[in-house]
UniProtKB/TrEMBL annotation:
Keywords: Monooxygenase, Oxidoreductase. The lineage of its organism: Bacteria, Pseudomonadati, Pseudomonadota, Alphaproteobacteria, Rhodospirillales. Residues 14-103 form the ABM domain. It comes from Inquilinus limosus. One of its GO terms (molecular function) is monooxygenase activity. PANTHER family: ABM DOMAIN-CONTAINING PROTEIN, QUINOL MONOOXYGENASE YGIN-RELATED. PROSITE patterns: ABM (PS51725). This is Antibiotic biosynthesis monooxygenase.
């Protein structure tokens, strides 16, 4: 079964891509820091989805695609959550450059799902 969704006027849904260039040899440490954050995020009421990617050409390059129901709620409530603090504090030491964050407004989504 295939599903398609289209954004409605006034929809506050927001998507992000976060690009992370990890220092060589620190990939496992980075994933150990990130995994509990991803595990906790999925239980938040405004969380929609997150997909972690790794470059097939560069094992130190990661990208997270996240979707949240509301940007303001994400910034004011979710980012300051305690479960994110160790991860955020460690990033300057684990990354070889500042993370890149790009904000997107979803307008359509197409998904395959099990019947």
């Amino acid at each position: 079964m295939l599903q398609s969704t289209t954004a409605r006027p006034g929809d506050k849904t927001v998507a992000f891509t976060v690009t992370l260039h990890v220092k060589p040899g620190r990939e496992a440490e980075f994933l150990d820091l990130l995994t509990p954050v991803l595990d906790a995020m999925r239980h938040e009421p405004s969380f929609v989805n997150a997909v972690l990617h790794r470059s097939p050409d560069d094992p130190t390059l990661f990208m997270i695609y996240e979707t949240w129901a509301d940007l303001d709620e994400l910034v004011q409530v979710q980012i300051p959550r305690g479960y994110r603090q160790a991860y955020i504090a460690a990033l300057p030491d684990v990354l070889r450059q500042e993370r890149g964050v790009t904000i997107w407004q979803p307008i359509r989504g197409d998904f395959a799902s099990a019947a």
